[in-house]
From TrEMBL:
<keyword id="KW-0489">Methyltransferase</keyword>
<dbReference type="InterPro" id="IPR041698">
    <property type="entry name" value="Methyltransf_25"/>
</dbReference>
<keyword id="KW-0808">Transferase</keyword>
<dbReference type="InterPro" id="IPR029063">
    <property type="entry name" value="SAM-dependent_MTases_sf"/>
</dbReference>
<dbReference type="GO" id="GO:0000179">
    <property type="term" value="F:rRNA (adenine-N6,N6-)-dimethyltransferase activity"/>
</dbReference>
<feature type="domain" description="Methyltransferase">
    <location>
        <begin position="52"/>
        <end position="113"/>
    </location>
</feature>
<protein>
    <submittedName>
        <fullName>Methyltransferase domain-containing protein</fullName>
    </submittedName>
</protein>
<dbReference type="Pfam" id="PF13649">
    <property type="entry name" value="Methyltransf_25"/>
</dbReference>
<dbReference type="InterPro" id="IPR051720">
    <property type="entry name" value="rRNA_MeTrfase/Polyamine_Synth"/>
</dbReference>
<dbReference type="InterPro" id="IPR020596">
    <property type="entry name" value="rRNA_Ade_Mease_Trfase_CS"/>
</dbReference>
């Protein structure tokens, strides 16, 4: 297995959002965090030979990270066509032969059924924008219906919500860690040029 650092290097070429939409919470996952999540998933045998589903795939950071670790296929679901077009270009930059299905769709209303249990990786909208609190709940409902295991990034302070949601929907949190990452000042309502977002990553096993 390649190292986490090697994966981070391979993901350094992935381009982020050209015209980020605040309402969709388009924050790219930095390569270091993406590599951390995917490497951890690989160590748990959750990537190789599996179907991996990336919900809210953006410009493909987690999709491509997973694709580099030998899954059977990756299905990337993203609502916004612009980032998906960038993701297809990113695939060329990264250079992987893994089959990737790019799907422009609402991740909370998944328009496909997947016969085999899947590994979900996702950095969904957190609901940090006004009036969108709990936006990750809809994504987690999809996860609960299709995943045997999931890795998801949430905002800091999500532990109680995640554990309760998992318990109510046939899931169990097996691992958790916190990670801070910097995002550029891409939306007008941010005052500083760069700011840190405190996040938490959860591995959850599901009854599917
Ligand atoms: N996973 C990417 C992007 C994270 S930002 C990365 O790790 O870099 C969250 C992404 O979710 C954005 O690309 C946004 O457009 C997408 N999104 C928001 N609501 C969505 C929905 N209902 N269905 C699918 N994608 C959605």
């Amino acid at each position: 297995m390649a190292t986490k650092r090697e994966l981070e290097g391979q993901l350094a070429v992935v381009v982020g959002f050209e015209d980020p939409q605040a309402a969709l919470e388009q924050y790219p996952t930095p390569p270091a965090l993406a590599a951390h999540v995917i490497h951890l998933a690989d160590l748990h045998d959750d990537i190789e030979g599996r179907t991996v589903l990336d919900l809210g795939a953006g410009t493909g950071m987690l999709t491509l990270g997973a694709a580099l670790r030998g899954p059977a296929r990756v299905i990337a679901v993203e609502l916004d066509g612009g980032p998906l077009a960038t993701a297809v270009e990113n695939r060329r930059r990264v250079g992987t032969r893994t089959p990737i299905h790019w799907l422009q769709a609402d991740a909370t209303q998944l328009p496909l059924s997947i016969p085999e249990p899947v590994t979900v990786v996702m950095n969904p909208p957190f609901g940090a924008q006004d009036g969108q609190a709990g936006a990750d709940r809809g994504f987690l409902s999809t996860v609960a219906s299709v995943a045997s295991v999931s890795y998801s990034v949430h905002n800091a302070g999500s532990k109680e919500f995640i554990e309760a949601f998992a318990a109510d929907n046939g899931g169990e949190v097996t691992h958790a860690f916190s990670a801070a990452f910097a995002v550029d000042n891409q939306f007008e309502h941010h005052d500083e040029e760069r700011r840190e977002i405190d996040t938490e990553v959860y591995r959850i096993e599901w009854d599917n």
